[in-house]
Amino acid sequence: MGQLVNGVWQDTWYDTKSTGGKFVRSTAGFRNWITPDGAPGPSGDGGFAAESGRYHLYVSYACPWAHRTLIFRAIKGLEPHIGVSVVHPDMLSDGWSFADDWPGATGDPINGAAFVRDLYVKARPDVSGRATVPVLWDKARGTIVSNESSEIIRMFNSAFNGLTGNTQDFWPEELRAEIEEVNARIYDTLNNGVYKSGFATTQAAYDEAVGALFETMDWLEDRLSRRRFLVGNSITEADWRLLPTLLRFDPVYHLHFKCNRNRLIDFPNLWAYTRELYQYPGVRGTVNFDHIVRHYHYSHESINPHRIIPINPVLDFDAPHGRDQLAA
Ligand SMILES: N[C@@H](CCC(=O)N[C@@H](CS)C(=O)NCC(=O)O)C(=O)O
């Protein structure tokens, strides 16, 4: 694993020395938006109009941020319009690779890249920063539209509605303020909190992260005992952003990232809620536990130096969730 500095790859693990043992996630560098007519979005340049077959999504099945974009691609009917390439689950000194010698890893038929970093250099030869997934690629202009999952899912939520006819809105105007509030807490303490816990290199940094993480799990358990979904009375973006973290909780975060005060299955409401979202049409096909379990345990040498893949519990995500009884 490493990062690009002026277009050149440097193999370095995360620097936690300058931050008192804390893992600090860097911000994404490509922030353009696809819009129905190519008008500029909230940031970046215009010229990225919604067109069938023009865009391509590069993901890892293991990565929770990439997972959100796969979920939106599925539930918004975008699979016929936006292609996908899947990296190999092992992320080693060259970063994410397009080796295809693993079931489900596709290689890169679009750009013929060997590594995800090659896409970044192709898009911007002097690029600096981490070569992360997801990457939303524009085949017409040969560049990266966006590498920020929270913005890619908002494009997918509405930009292609004219093409797909799917007008379901997971980011409804009247709920935006509350969704943002819930997202902020879940992002900081849970989506990113598991990483802050797992990548901490001091006891204090770990204690702070894992404490906040389980406070949020308790808060969610209570909230979901009274309501079916996080905000409003139907599924919103806030639910879809939470799901990838919950799916990975018991197989990965509990052991590998030391998030072990409780398991997900110890929270009855949160566990049933996870099953309901997993069973939503189209979602199951975006989940690949083989890549998830392999990636984390094999790639993070500083956490698991012998690269032993644990046996793990078998969880029945298809068990009835019973949440239809609950007032929405
Ligand atoms: N802000 C990004 C974060 C994406 C991200 O951190 N992806 C991880 C995989 S889970 C990655 O590619 N890491 C490689 C690295 O940090 O070098 C987003 O949400 O899209």
Automatic annotation (TrEMBL):
Q: Which Pfam families match?
A: GST_C_2, GST_N_2
- Keywords attached to this entry: Oxidoreductase
Query: Taxonomically, which superkingdom?
Result: Bacteria
User: EC number(s) on record?
Assistant: 1.8.-.-
**What PANTHER family does this protein's entry cite?**
GLUTATHIONE S-TRANSFERASE OMEGA-LIKE 1-RELATED (PTHR32419:SF6), GLUTATHIONYL-HYDROQUINONE REDUCTASE (PTHR32419)
* PROSITE patterns noted in UniProt: GST_CTER (PS50405)
Q: What is this protein called?
A: Glutathionyl-hydroquinone reductase YqjG
**GO cellular component, as recorded:** cytoplasm
Q: Where does glutathione bind?
A: W96, R130, A131, T132, V133, E148, S149
In this chain, the site described as Lowers pKa of active site Cys is at Y253, Y296
